[in-house]
Amino acid sequence: QKEVEQDPGPLSVPEGAIVSLNCTYSNSAFQYFMWYRQYSRKGPELLMYTYSSGNKEDGRFTAQVDKSSKYISLFIRDSQPSDSATYLCAMSVNDKIIFGKGTRLHILP
Amino acid sequence: NAGVTQTPKFQVLKTGQSMTLQCAQDMNHNSMYWYRQDPGMGLRLIYYSASEGTTDKGEVPNGYNVSRLNKREFSLRLESAAPSQTSVYFCASSEPGGGETQYFGPGTRLLVL
């Protein structure tokens, strides 16, 4: 079983919809949970990170962690065409960071 | 602040040629990393440096060498390039204990023929 699993997509949704992106993991030792956004031909940029179960909100973005189910989610409200990108989940313990393979998201105008 | 910069942006090599990818950061971070990103494989760690003067292997170090020249600069060298090293290479930096907040450069696209 891979340490971090993420559906590669692509996921296409209409503008204004709520987007849900998900990852599962197997290592219960992971301490930090992150979401990175990567535009085409650019480097990944950190969107959000959290270290506890529950929700963390930042503008239109909400990160959710369920440690009991080993499941994390990123919700994007009022999605915009500018949100079209690849979203990578990542998890770390003791400075070791493991990335998911990324989900390609297309927001249709 | 420029953040993390990488040179070159794009390079074509022939099998067996050598080259060095350069990375520099101006955020005074101690830790620096080299990743490769391939379709369907995600980001994979090649080497990392927790501080000036130290380097450690990551998940896929074979065929690569690194040098932590000073606190700002971390280079990646391919001594004898192979087609399997065709990839996009990203450099990143972070504070110690701040592995969750890695800052990435724009990447170097390498094609080995």
Describe what you observe in this structure.
The complex is a heterodimer of chains A (109) and B (113). Chain A is mostly beta strands. In chain A, 0% of the residues lie in helices and 58% in strands. Chain A has no helices and eleven strands. Chain A has strands at 4-6, 11-14, 19-25, 32-38, 45-50, 54-58, 61-66, 71-76, 85-93, 96-99, 103-108. In chain A, a hairpin with a 4-residue loop joins strand 7 and strand 8. Chain A is globular and about 40 Å long. The model of chain A has no long low-confidence stretch (mean pLDDT 93). Chain B is mostly beta strands and 113 residues long. Chain B has no helices and eleven strands. Chain B has strands at 4-7, 10-13, 19-25, 31-38, 42-49, 56-57, 65-68, 74-78, 87-94, 103-104, 108-112. In chain B, the strands form two sheets. In chain B, strands 2, 4, 5, 6, 9, 10 and 11 form a seven-stranded mixed beta sheet that branches. Chain B is globular and about 35 Å long. The A-B interface holds A 8, 32, 34, 41-46, 49, 51, 88, 90, 92, 95-97, 99-102 and B 4, 31, 40-43, 45, 50, 90, 92, 96-97, 99-107.
